[in-house]
Amino acid sequence: MKSIGITLGDPAGVGPEILVKSLPFLAEQKCFFLLFGDENLLKREAKHYNVFLPSNLKIINLSELKVQPGKPTPESQLATLRYLEEAIRYALSGELKALVTLPINKEVFKLAGLPFRGHTEYLAHTLGAKAPAMSFYGRRLRVTLITTHLPLRDVFSKLEVSKIVEIAQLAYDFTKRLNPRKRELKIALSALNPHAGEGGLLGDEEERLLKPAIKIAQDQGIPLYGPYPADSLFFFASRGYFDHVLSLYHDQGLIPFKLFHFRDGVNVTLGLPIVRTSPVHGTAYDIAGQGKAFPDSFISAVKLALRLSK
To answer: Matching InterPro entries, A to Z (predicted)?
Structure first.
């Protein structure tokens, strides 16, 4: 039977605490979990919170660290890559039906000399996905990004009609999986400029890039509409006017999403050969080891992974 894989993430972050707080939930699930991480670290954390390791969780032990919460070291950061590498090996061999990743410090890729900006880009490369997309799922908002981890000054040069159409297709496929019985779906494309460019007065990207992309997408059967001014779009999306929003850059989409779903939102990578989800927060070194971390986002990520991998 295929398992749900879980990577421990940064051992110095909140990942171990969140995982242990989620063990009672994992124990209730009718599936097996493979944890790629540090067995002794997890057992110490479980003992601290007086939680038992469930019988449906198997640990693939890949490190033996003595790490202080909130204080990452090169050794602890590089261990996160070993967890990922082994999980990917299992995924490629067909032993996993989904992968849930706990937070890492993106600096680990620079430390290891790898040219990636985060989990999404690394997983896409190693799993052979040519055009992945970073998506976010919550009860009130579903958002997919056209560009991901880029400096804002670089966003404009990365916006292409073909890329928008490709990601619109991924978002549409994802939305259909979430709403298999809903006949009429609506996906909204956010504008880039204030007031959607005001007919070219405040920028020409809407006329030059976004509207042509919408036309091509609609011709391909994708229910994409817009472009809508970002300052009002997310209000209407949160009220159910749209099933999904395509946002052009990271903070444009993530600020409104996290206003609604900071505690329970899920990051989903679209376009991979395997389901991959994760919490929407980071390593949170500032609260690691203090008992303050909430497991809600991780639990939501596991729930969505189970739902999508059926």
So the answer is: PdxA_fam (IPR005255)
Same domain, 155 and 253: yes
Distances in whole angstroms, Cα of residue 52 to Cα of each of 12, 48, 100, 234: 21, 10, 21, 42
> For residues 14 and 295, is the Cβ–Cβ distance under 8 A?
no
Exposed e or buried b per residue across 42-56, where buried means at least 16 C-beta atoms within 10 angstroms of its C-beta: beebbeeeebebeee
Only one residue has tokens 């479980």, namely 46
Tens of pLDDT, residues 174-216: 999 999 888 899 999 999 999 987 788 888 899 999 999 999 9
Return the structure tokens found at 111. Answer: 């430390």
Q: Which domain holds residue 182?
A: 133-265
Residue 161: predicted pLDDT = 97
Which CATH number characterizes residue 84's domain?
3.40.718.10
**Both 140 and 256 in a single domain?**
yes
Give yes or no for a cis peptide into 227 (omega within 30° of 0).
Answer: yes
